[in-house]
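Recap from last week: sequence in, structure out.
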Amino acid sequence: MPWERREDNGICYYRSRLLAAFSWLGQAFSTRGPARESTGVGAEKATGIKDRTETAGFFRHYGLPPDRVQMVKQVHGDGVLVVEEPRSGEELPVADAMITNRPGVGLATIHADCVPVVLVDPVRRVIGAVHAGWKGTLAGIVPKTLARMEAEYGSRPADCWAAIGPAIGACCYRVSPERIKLFQEKWPQLDLAGAYQEAVLDLAAINRQFLEDLGVAPGHIDQAGLCTSCQSADFYSFRREQTTGRMLSLIVMK
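Predicted structure tokens:
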């Protein structure tokens, strides 16, 4: 199901049509505008960005003051943060994924090619937000986030839904054979024969396969299929620009 592009009150964003069916859920991936100069409370410590005005407006579009949104210092690892209350005004905790069962607490990650994955358990009312670059994908951050949701809240993959947002696609993500070999050795179940021949990786597809292998129903996964490197009008791309801004991936239970 293709993601839809929307513009409300001057704020442009993409959202999963599949997750939009949950009236109690807010979910969006910003375009170049809302995250151009800011990524939220404390984010300047992680990104060097100073002005938070535009991102505060993006959060408030979902009824969230910035201090009700948890962000993290992303390090391309596999750490998963359990969020009870946002840590307002503090040094950002180090992690690349977050989970919570608290309504009114937003989870936001920042992206400029890396894969944004949001997870929803509508049975136990649990959400997760994941930043999966190639290192995090190799480390299995999406499977580890689902495992943490199960350990903390009793979530089952069969009950979960997922949306995989805009990220660099195989069309643009050329890598070395050595990097592909890392994936082949750690995840032999992945079909990477074509990737090795073409010297490309499709990180979104790999994370989708992880979800399906764990028991998330294929019909419960909404993959955007939007390449951040190709679509320069809407998205920043580190691979394309090297020095660039970031987009926001946001999820919240209203």
